[in-house]
Amino acid sequence: MNTYQDLLASIAPGGESREIKDPATGETVASAPVHTAADLDAAVVAARAAQPAWGALSHAERSDYLNRAADAVEASAEALAELLSREQGKPLNGPNARFEVGACSAWLRATASFEMEPEVVVDDGETRAEVHYRPIGVVGAIGPWNWPMMISIWQIAPSLRMGNTVVLKPSEYTPLSVLALGAVLNQVLPNDVLHVVSGGREVGEALSAHTDIDKLMFTGSTATGKAIIRSSADTVKRVTMELGGNDAGIVLDDADPKAIAQDLFWGAFINTGQTCAAMKRLYVPDSLYDQVCDALVEVAGQMPMGNGLDENNVLGPLQNKAQYDIVAKLVEAAKESGARVLMGGNPDSTATGYFYPTTLVADIDNDNPLVAEEQFGPALPIIRYSDVDEAVKMANGLDVGLGASVWSSDPAKAKEVAARVEAGTVWINKHGAVDPRIPFGGIKESGYGLEFGVAGLKALGVPQVISQ
């Protein structure tokens, strides 16, 4: 599949369909199939029938399939990136569309490489006990619209590696990307091991409550995650929830503002701020406040925003009108409160596409809605603090805890502060740097369960103890 038109041809709807619009231009990208609960049932039946043979393969055999799947992604990489850019809005360049497709193949290969040997927990000459991880069965996955391909692979790759089959429902905002990715993967996977069912909320609800789905993986908002957990309760499904975050970054008083400015910027504005583990609020000490603000303005002013197919752009539109309205409302509330807008905050209401300008807001109270609520867009509030205890208290003050970061010239000092921050991951002198080898998951209302690495594989298996 060498062009994005080839990809679209592979997923052309045969029944009811819905037009998907390019968020940068408003033009129709293509029509996506609108599947039903009956289509979901058929996919689950087929996936369950295929699971025993797939689960009977060895780890080495399933890993070989994952590597071949990575080859297939790489062979269609440019076409996948173009389709992703047109549908999601993210630019081809920068940490965006091509980066996301590359992450898909990288995650497939990494997941194939992890060793999964039985764990010997007791071997004292009298008793030997081993923990094995068996396939769960059929995994139901529900993905988001911000990183639709990459996060789908985060769900698909470990599920398949552990001998499960997968039925995946993409976001109704970005179904084309995931349907195309599924078509590419299914060029090499056995029949019915992976199904992508493109539908609306009713399909997601049916998947959550389905009696023949054994495990659920969800990435998205906390509110939707809570609804999925409730739906899954009657069938006692295992669940992995990667939910909303409002990540804090804390700059310590020994940091070099110019040295960290670019990494601060991308920690906040990767994917135009539409990332669960992006930095959503930045705490800066009085002694460095103006310097950090100035350095961020300088870096942000060099980052072009526009249509993702323009090779020069590294920031794109918000993916949908609902998210645009959330960002606009929060920034407007900040302005009305007297916060100081360093740049941006002035969208062109006559422009085509959901473009919200890169926005930096200073001198803002910690309880302002732009700080306390997840904006999920290109607007960063910068909050002053007087001592580090105050910064940690403010960082920990919300009911979410996905990621956080500490910025310092002294790694030991940064590590001490990081240990006090309530988040599933705390990065030092970087933010949002996920790695397929390193477990990732949230605390508080940011969800539970781990993804990535061997820990992520174990979460996609049923532990069985064999004791003799």
Write up what this structure looks like.
The protein contains 16 helices and 20 strands. 40% of the residues lie in helices and 21% in strands.
Shape: globular
**Proportion in β-strands:** 15-25%
The chain-level mean pLDDT equals 97
Measure the end-to-end span.
Answer: 52 Å
Query: Over the alpha carbons, how many angstroms does the gyration radius reach?
Result: 22 Å
Q: Tell me how many strands there are.
A: 20
Structural class: alpha/beta
Report on the biggest sheet. 7 strands, mixed
Question: In which range does the helix fraction lie?
Answer: 25-40%
Number of helices: 16
User: Low-confidence stretches at least 5 residues in length (pLDDT < 50)?
Assistant: none
Q: How would you write the strand order of the largest sheet?
A: 12-13-14-11-10-16-17
What keyword list fits this structure?
468 residues; alpha/beta; seven-stranded mixed sheet; six-stranded mixed sheet; 16 helices
Helix and strand topology:
Elements (H helix, E strand, L loop, with lengths): L3 H7 L6 E5 L6 E6 L3 H20 L2 H17 L1 H12 L8 H17 L5 E5 L4 E8 L2 E5 L5 H14 L3 E5 L5 H11 L8 E3 L4 H9 L5 E5 L2 H11 L5 E5 L4 E5 L5 H13 L9 E7 L3 H12 L20 H16 L3 E4 L15 E4 L6 H4 L6 E7 L2 H8 L4 E2 L1 E5 L3 H8 L6 E4 L14 E2 L2 E2 L4 H6 L2 E7 L1
Helix pairs in contact: 1-4, 3-5, 4-5, 4-7, 5-6, 8-9, 10-11
